[in-house]
Amino acid sequence: MEAALTEPETERLLGKRHGVTWGTVFERMETETYHRYATIRCPSTALDEAEEKLDEIQDKLERAADETPWEWRLVCPLILFGTLAVLVFGGPLALLVALVVAAAVMFTLVWRGTGAWFNLRQCLAAGALGIAWLVQRFEVGVCAVRWGEDLQVEGTGRVVPQLVLHMLGDDPDSLFIPDDYDWGLRAPRAPGYVVENGARRQLERKLSHIEDGTIAVCGPRGAGKTTLLEQCVKKAGFGVIVQAPATYTPHDFLLSLSVRLCEKYMRDEGYAPPEFTRLSPARRLLRRVRSQAKRLGRWSSFAVPAAALLVLGLSASVRSLYTQYAASVADFVRAHAESIRDDAMDIWQGHAVVASITVVIAGIAWWQARRAAWLPRLLGRLWVHGSEVLGRLLPWGSAATVLLDGQIRQQILHLYRTQQEALIQTAGYAGGLAIVWWLLRLTRDAGVEFPLGRWRVSLEKVFRPLAAAAGTYLLLYLINNPQTHTLLSDPENPLRLAGIITGVLLSKAGGWSPRPEEPELVSQCRNHLYRLQTIQQSTHGLTTGGAAQILSLGTNHTTSVSTVPPNYPELVEEFRDLLKRIAAEKVGRGKTVVIAIDEVDRLGTDSQALAFLREIKAILGVPLVHYLISVAEDVGAAFVRRGLPHRDVTDSSLDDIIHVQSSTLKESSAILAKRSQRLKDPHVMLAHALSGGILRDLLRYGLQLRETQDKTQSYELTHISRHLILEELAETFAGFRTLLSKQHWTHDTSDILASFRTLCGYLRDPCPCTQAEVLHTLEQFAFYSHGSRPDTPAADGEPNTAARQELTSDARELIDEASAYAYFSLTLLDIFSTEGLERRTQLAAEQGPDGDPERLADARQELGISPYSARPVIDTIRKAWSLSLGPTTNSPTPPSPVNCSRHNRTR
Question: Is the dihedral of CA 843, 848, 854, 855 positive or negative?
Fold first, then answer.
């Protein structure tokens, strides 16, 4: 039970409601009902059988011990220890003799019929049963441990959480117990929390079915259009996303898009874009010199010592080789040089006519081959393959000379005859070290990484020093070992090592190739960046004149050339040409090209957005390029009306459109569940209703639940929801009061502002002892609807008929909007601030679609369209939830008894 109560999910629920503590749960579990309920889930059949068998052995042991007067606990150990003493001090032969003597004595006792044999036999039987009892006792312990583990998992592990939930009472999931830090809620744009939805699947499906085109992504603000574009660009093989702020002109926007495109392509190809922030030539030169010096210094710190060590180690062998073969090589070269010189003189003097013709034809052929690609390619292939063959033959040939060296063979035979055991031991130990070194190298080069807590451990970093240490130890062992030292000290070994090094260098040289020339498209992007971001100016001067000192005649010519920034048509043409070439290259590699233009819906009105689309229409329709444009709902509505008596720029600019709808309750649950594990279904339902399914607001309300809980220090959803809804209502009414202050008011209509001020005062600084007044005033204002109800006398929060008639249309519309929002907030208070949410949710669902919690989000969305269409929706919701459709004297959400420290009274 202690293990079950210390489970994190169970322990965090203890102490959150009255009567649900460690002690009360422990006492309840110790009752017979819950004890039986926990144990019946884990039958102890194996343990019961083991205990029964243990009891049987115990009974047999007691009967065997009762049948003899000897103490079997003393006799059996004496026999055992005596046998071990004979075996240890006398050996196996003495033990055999002792057993024969003991058998003879036993035979004599049996033959005479004495009682000693019977007593000894019973003692041995009791000893055997004692051993069987110990074994069975161990088996009982094992079965008890296994049953305890099963009981902890299937018994108390399941019963205790259920008991805690039962003791919590109604709506245990409404308890909001947050973690210390919810990264997913505090960082809304953090990567790793994206949940796939229908809009993303639809967009990916459309992109896979068309080769190129322009797709508009429309939806309400905050619905996740930017996240959708970012994910598509990230998934594409080559993608660029740009913003379209309201202050951009089409020319500036296209200029920025061109720069982003060029920089993205250059970085994608491994080239750094040019920097224009530091135009000082001296500073650029110093930076380049410093970089080259740093690179040269690092290279020299390894190259110079390595070359010095190689020269020092191979100098004697190279000098010996030079002394031995220098004269022969010189004679060979001299002889062939003289032969070539004689042949050249014969051709020069005309003594070799055929050779002269051959040389002329060879010269013409060589000149004609200057533009042919096959000759350099042939020479390159010959160099590569020849270097590879020589690079493999030299190391293997140098190593093979060890087997052909007679002196080394004699040394090995001598060691084998004189120190055979030491040689075998050395070879085995060295082979084992070599295998360990090889395995460490394989593990190092595996490239495996695995998480360890907050860190990621790389096998390369761990096993690199281990492999180096094993290799160094193997080398030191071979050098210091007497058997291998004589073999390593052979005078031809440095020359063999030089051959191996030369072969390796030849292999490396054969695979070396100069750095490829910068691709043409990268150069074009670089030049395009220079033209777009700089103004280049060049001045040329020429001065001519006579040399006479007295009279000088001359001219002075100066020419100045400067670049002109491209105009909009030229910029469009260059952008389309560059993007077309980039797209053809990327698609040829099996990638997709996506250009995303975001925030077009921030360009003010829909007419401004359409004008912007009309201006940038020239860059759309590039082959093999997918354009994704984030637009407002008005632009999307204009596109879907194509073919009707309506035509605008969207008809010819867009190929298709994706509507990013508000998330459903199921999608909101998936989104919040990925960002926080502590938000249960009731909390998600509240956040979804307040946000209307808008993703940005959904995350904001999820975080505000955490903030409200921290402020109220309450875990109950009834308290948290009341504070959260009233706080949101206070902020909204403050905005409405600001808008109402700009309207025209008279003495007769001032009571409306007074009622509004009273309600805002209650909501701005709520007091625990005035909750009833707050709810009553809110209810009176929520059920006020101009023209929808009969005239009633003026009351708090309800203006009279004369005042309503003097209101301007704008003021009346603002009041109706505020009243409808108050009506929606009151409905949320009635639903979430009353206990028994789970039971009432089920009852409301039985009333039909109007009782679905999704309808709360629909009502919030309808408020953004019209307060007059939202009220009937809210009415149907209240009817399904069995809430009143008019003002009531008794509020369905009575305030809980609290102590008011401000007024020193209890309500």
Answer: negative
